[in-house]
Amino acid sequence: QVQLVESGGGSVQAGGSLRVSCAASGFTAVTYCMGWFRQAQGQDRETVATIYTAGDTTYYANSVKGRFTISQDNAKNTLYLQMNTLTPEDTATYYCAASPLSLPCIHGVLNPSAEFAYWGQGTQVTVAS
Predict the structure, then answer these.
(1) N or C: less crowded end of the chain, CB within 10 Å?
(2) What is the SS3 assignment for 107?
(3) Cα–Cα distance between 61 and 47 in angstroms, integer?
């Protein structure tokens, strides 16, 4: 059965770095559109980054471009998000998700909940000032 399990969240000071992981099972992530999303308290869920390894395609939100890097270890079937130069605005619950189709990764995410069929439980990232 399909499962996505996030880990690696925690507390870090502003300017620091953190890497969150998403272990996938029940499917091969390299053939899926994979994404990281985040939701701050009282805010809407937003797209952070996506990757479609089979199509060699990545996307980053403007707010994280140049600071965050999405990657995938195909052998481990694991998705990563390396977060550098963190600010308090990055504080949120971070979720990984998977879409069996490439469209969201190639043409952009329009509705995360509708387009991504599988979601992890989330991992909390807190950036202190």
Answers:
(1) N
(2) helix
(3) 7
Tell me how far apart the terminal alpha carbons of the chain are, to the nearest angstrom.
Answer: 40
Residue closest to 17 by CA, chosen among 68, 64, 93, 66: 68
Give residue 36's pLDDT. 98
pLDDT classification of 41: cutoffs 50, 70, 90: very high
Angle, vertex CA 23, rays to CA 89 and CA 43, nearest 5: 25
Measured CA to CA, the distance from residue 39 to residue 12 in angstroms comes to 17
Amino acid at the residue 51: I
Where residue 66 falls among pLDDT bands split at 50, 70, 90?
A: very high
CA 92 to chain centre: 12
Task: List the structure tokens of 14.
Answer: 């502003």
* Pairing label, strands 18-25, 10-13: unpaired
